[in-house]
Every structure is written in structure tokens, then in C-alpha cells.
Amino acid sequence: MPSQLRSARAVADLTSGVILASVEIAAAPERVFRAICSDEIASWWGSPETYRVTRWTGDVRPGGWWRSEGESADGTTFAVSGDIVEVEPPTLLVQTWRYEHKPSDLTTVRFHIEAIDGGSRVTVRHSGFTDRAACESHERGWERVLRLLTGFLES
Q: How many CA atoms lie within 13 A of 34 on its CB side?
């Protein structure tokens, strides 16, 4: 896969509060799926200069739940959690997303994983933003997260 096709890309529609992000990864869909919905998340999601997930727990089934705990670069701790809405291993995971410090801000993240020649195309749709600044910052965040996922799976 040429590197220009593989680089993570995210675009935010600030008016509708939706982010679309995608990346092509040289890893099978089963491997990608496991990396995005298991305790492996604590191995790759984040970096010391921004924030990092230190613990992930969950029950990945429709009606299940998930929770990530972490620490920002300045040492502040955080937690993000939600419900599992839909699961079709290894191609689909839909979950709600709520920061514990802002429980009224509920969004939905949809991961679609498609087998392509040489790996997988991961498409993320993060919707439900009511704050333009939050939507815009998550646009940059999803590009970073998908780059981190690619590095983890291709190393």
C-alpha cells in the first residue's frame, strides 16, 4: 500500500457535529478488531506528550459496556466510558462515548473494518457533537489515534 493512501485522515462537519476518519492498515480485520475493543488499547492509545490510556475494561456484546482510564501529559487522570450498541466481529463496533467529567456530552463512535488487499480499511464515524470546538479537536484526535493504531499493528 503506498504510504499516501495509508495515512490517517479525518474530516469534521462542524455544522452537523460528525467526524469521519479512515486509515488503511497492513493487518487483518480480526487483528484490528481485537486492538480496538480489548485491553490491548492500553498498549497503544495515546502518547506521553498528549495523554495515554492506562487501563481498558469492557464487555463487548450488544448491551455491554466499556471503560478506558488514563492520564494526560500533565498527570491529570481521566475516564471515558459507554455502552456497546452493535457488534459484528470483525467488521463493526458501535459504542456510545461519554467523558466522566462531562456526563451530559454523549456521542457515538462507529468503527467499520473492511478487508482490503494487504490488510484493512478502518473507517470511524464519531457523531453527536453539540460543541464545535470539541468536534474540531476530536478531528485532530482521530487522525492521531489512527496513526497510533497503525504503528501498533504494523510494528
A: 8
The number of beta carbons lying within 10 Å of the beta carbon of residue 96 is 16
Calpha distance 109→127 (Å, rounded): 7
Helix (H) or strand (E) holding 128: none
> Which pLDDT does position 140 carry in this prediction?
95
Give the domain CATH number at 133: 3.30.530.20
Q: Domain range spanning residue 45? A: 3-154
- CA 7 to chain centroid, in Å, comes to 15
Positive or negative, the CA dihedral 139, 154, 152, 125 is positive
Is 82 in contact with 68 (CB distance < 8 Å)? no
- 55-103 pLDDT tens trace: 999 999 999 999 999 999 999 999 999 999 999 999 999 999 999 988 8
pLDDT band at 46 (very low <50, low <70, confident <90, very high): very high
> Which residues partner with 106 through β-bridges?
98
